């Protein structure tokens, strides 16, 4: 195959990221499989990205994620500076067959504004599509710019203009799914894990409250704002409360964290994360928002851990109730479902992950979308295909 793709990861974190990094982890999972299929990948990221690619394009030496806690007028130019570098690169060369963009809002707006002379673009929507109504509601990418979602439920809630530019959805994947059904059965403990960035939408306060009420040990694993370790947050002092996720943690979650029944361990990655998830009774997702993608959900299934969750967003697409997890629309039922999760079969979770959530499955799906987008057919024809 002769195909060169510029993969635009953005300026916030290196690829792969140091610990938590949702979009960057998706890219780190996708790119090796694309290259295995013969795709040449030019990565637009920060200079200290270590992912093996054919070329690396960068504006910043390292990740700018820490800048996100600064006031808007001090940070608003970061993504724009990165995109300006991407556009310069695209103007300077003629070998890019397609741009696969992952930068929220700014990536879509900038690449669309290049007009008909720009390369074909596939923009992946990783987030809540009720945001940016002026951009999404009036999008006009002509026959050159297309979007895809990370779940069908995400796209179903999209503004009409965004749906008109859609070529479908691709579920997220995890390398943990490769050969998951051949690994030894995990030895389960009693603890439950909530894995992900701590914020109101993820509902860690709900999980912590239910753990105290029902009496199951709960581990909260994920960053609070830019703080990846409890000691880092403690050292930041009161100034850290300027970050809304930090305020949420202190006001709504920390009162339940006793260091015994409910613990916050900060960001976990690699083997530590895998062992924590594989040994859990359940992975809990007490969601307050319509989760678009669910990376942590497919990771839990690949490690043989049933999912207990609020049935919102993509969760009903990823989890089969009664087989690979337990879902409810009633928040107060989650505690009892956690206790019932021990009756589910870990091997069923792992078999589901092997069938649906390997990187190879995701890469094949994206490769098919690349070919559709490159033909520059009208949006109506693409949707009918």
TrEMBL record:
<feature type="domain" description="Glycosyl transferase family 1">
    <location>
        <begin position="184"/>
        <end position="335"/>
    </location>
</feature>
<feature type="domain" description="Glycosyltransferase subfamily 4-like N-terminal">
    <location>
        <begin position="20"/>
        <end position="130"/>
    </location>
</feature>
<dbReference type="InterPro" id="IPR028098">
    <property type="entry name" value="Glyco_trans_4-like_N"/>
</dbReference>
<keyword id="KW-0328">Glycosyltransferase</keyword>
<keyword id="KW-0808">Transferase</keyword>
<dbReference type="Pfam" id="PF13439">
    <property type="entry name" value="Glyco_transf_4"/>
</dbReference>
<dbReference type="InterPro" id="IPR001296">
    <property type="entry name" value="Glyco_trans_1"/>
</dbReference>
<dbReference type="Pfam" id="PF00534">
    <property type="entry name" value="Glycos_transf_1"/>
</dbReference>
<protein>
    <submittedName>
        <fullName>Glycosyltransferase involved in cell wall bisynthesis</fullName>
    </submittedName>
</protein>
<dbReference type="GO" id="GO:0016757">
    <property type="term" value="F:glycosyltransferase activity"/>
</dbReference>
């Amino acid at each position: 195959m002769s195909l060169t793709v510029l993969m635009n990861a953005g300026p916030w974190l290196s690829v792969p990221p140091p610990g938590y990094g949702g979009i960057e982890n998706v890219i780190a999972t996708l790119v090796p499989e694309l290259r295995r299929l013969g795709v040449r990948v030019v990565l637009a990221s920060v200079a200290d990205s270590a992912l093996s690619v054919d070329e690396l394009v960068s504006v910043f030496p390292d990740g700018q994620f820490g800048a996100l806690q600064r006031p808007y007028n001090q940070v608003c130019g970061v993504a724009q500076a990165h995109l300006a570098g991407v556009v310069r690169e695209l103007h300077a060369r003629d070998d890019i067959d397609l741009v696969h963009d992952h930068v929220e809002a700014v990536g879509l707006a900038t690449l669309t504004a290049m007009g008909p002379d720009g390369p074909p673009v596939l923009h992946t929507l990783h987030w809540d599509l009720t945001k940016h109504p002026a951009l999404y509601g009036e999008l006009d990418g002509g026959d050159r710019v297309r979007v895809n979602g990370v779940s069908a439920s995400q796209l179903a809630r999209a503004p009409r203009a965004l749906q008109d530019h859609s070529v479908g959805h691709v579920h997220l994947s995890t390398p943990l799914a490769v050969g998951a059904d051949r690994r030894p059965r995990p030895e389960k403990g009693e603890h439950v894990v909530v894995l992900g960035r701590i914020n109101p939408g993820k509902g860690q306060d709900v999980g912590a409250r239910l753990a105290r009420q029902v009496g199951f040990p709960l581990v909260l694993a994920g960053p609070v704002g830019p703080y990846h370790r409890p000691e880092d947050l403690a050292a930041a002092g009161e100034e850290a409360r300027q970050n809304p996720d930090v305020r949420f943690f202190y006001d709504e979650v920390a009162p339940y964290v006793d260091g015994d029944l409910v613990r916050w361990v900060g960001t976990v990655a690699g083997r530590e994360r895998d062992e924590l998830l594989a040994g859990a009774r359940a992975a809990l997702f007490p969601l307050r928002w319509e989760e678009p993608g669910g990376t942590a959900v497919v990771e839990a299934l690949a490690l043989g851990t049933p999912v207990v969750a609020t049935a919102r967003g993509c969760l009903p697409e990823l989890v089969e109730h009664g087989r690979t997890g337990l879902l409810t629309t009633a928040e107060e039922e989650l505690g009892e479902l956690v206790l019932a999760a021990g009756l589910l079969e870990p091997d069923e979770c792992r078999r589901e992950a092997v069938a649906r959530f390997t990187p190879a499955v995701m890469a094949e799906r994206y490769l098919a979308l690349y070919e559709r987008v490159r033909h520059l057919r009208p949006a109506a024809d693409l949707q009918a295909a």
